[in-house]
Amino acid sequence: MLICIPDVLGPEQVSQCRQVMDKAHWQDGRMTAGPQSASVKNNMQLPAASPEARELGDIVLDALGRNALFLSAALPLRILPPMFNRYGVGQTFGVHVDNAIRNVPGSATRIRTDLSCTLFLSEPDEYEGGELTIETAYGANEVKLPAGHAVLYPSTSLHCVQPVTSGARVASFFWIQSMIRDESPRSMLFELDQTIQELQGERGLDDPASVRLTGVYHNLIRHWAET
Ligand SMILES: O=C(O)CCC(=O)C(=O)O
Ligand SMILES: [Fe+2]
């Protein structure tokens, strides 16, 4: 399942991020890639330990923690510190799958990457190309979203970033270990949660059928979740 999450950051937060990124020192993106992805990766990144990456990462994490759609879709257990990338003209990231396990920089903690997320920080009219192409069972999806919007997709998917042919594309990207390891139960829980919220909107929070369904939702989480 591929989910677009609008307005993770508002316009002021996007411009705050952009100002910090404009002044930051960038490094070759291959520094954080495994051997297969390094061979197809050609972009720039903010060093993970840099003050800029930490400052911006906190803004993104804070926004994610308040985003009901993100929380419902990802059911996050751990989120890796957000990273930031830039593709100038001619830069691209060829087809790859993200590493299954990643170390949290500067700690012994490792996370399993269940979900990958790109939060767009450039407006679509600032660059040509640069679509994030995600392969799904139903074909390839090309994703290019307004600045401040994010796409969440299973880390099991093959994906690539098309070459940028004019302008530059900046984004935040990060990985999530979900409380629900597998895509299929996670998607069902998301559907159920969204449906319950719709029912509650129509019938009120104390509608008996919605209350029973809310019970089912939590009991399924109890059944499936790793904490
Ligand atoms: O830039 C993007 O949208 C995705 C980056 C990516 O796939 C990666 O760093 O593994
Ligand atoms: Fe990737």
UniProtKB/TrEMBL annotation:
Co-factor remark: Binds 1 Fe(2+) ion per subunit.
The positions making up the signal sequence are none
Against SUPFAM superfamilies, the record matches this protein to:
Clavaminate synthase-like (SSF51197)
Residues reported in the UniProt entry to bind 2-oxoglutarate:
R169
Tell me which domain of life the UniProt entry assigns to the organism this sequence originates from. Answer: Bacteria
Q: Which residues form the Fe2OG dioxygenase domain?
A: 78-178
UniProt-recorded Gene Ontology molecular function terms: 2-oxoglutarate-dependent dioxygenase activity; iron ion binding; L-ascorbic acid binding
Alphabetically list the UniProt keywords.
Answer: Dioxygenase, Iron, Metal-binding, Oxidoreductase, Vitamin C
> Known InterPro entries for this protein?
Oxoglu/Fe-dep_dioxygenase_dom, PKHD_C, PKHD_hydroxylase, Pro_4_hyd_alph, Pro_4_hyd_alph_FE2OG_OXY
Q: Which cofactor does this sequence's record say it needs?
A: Fe(2+); L-ascorbate
- Which GO terms are recorded in the biological process aspect for this UniProt protein? DNA damage response; intracellular iron ion homeostasis
Any single Pfam family the record assigns to this protein: 2OG-FeII_Oxy_3
Gene3D superfamilies from the entry?
Answer: q2cbj1_9rhob like domain (2.60.120.620), Rabenosyn, Rab binding domain (4.10.860.20)
Sites where the protein binds Fe cation: H96, D98, H159
Q: What NCBIfam families is this protein classified in? A: PRK05467.1-2, PRK05467.1-3, PRK05467.1-4
Q: What is this protein called?
A: PKHD-type hydroxylase
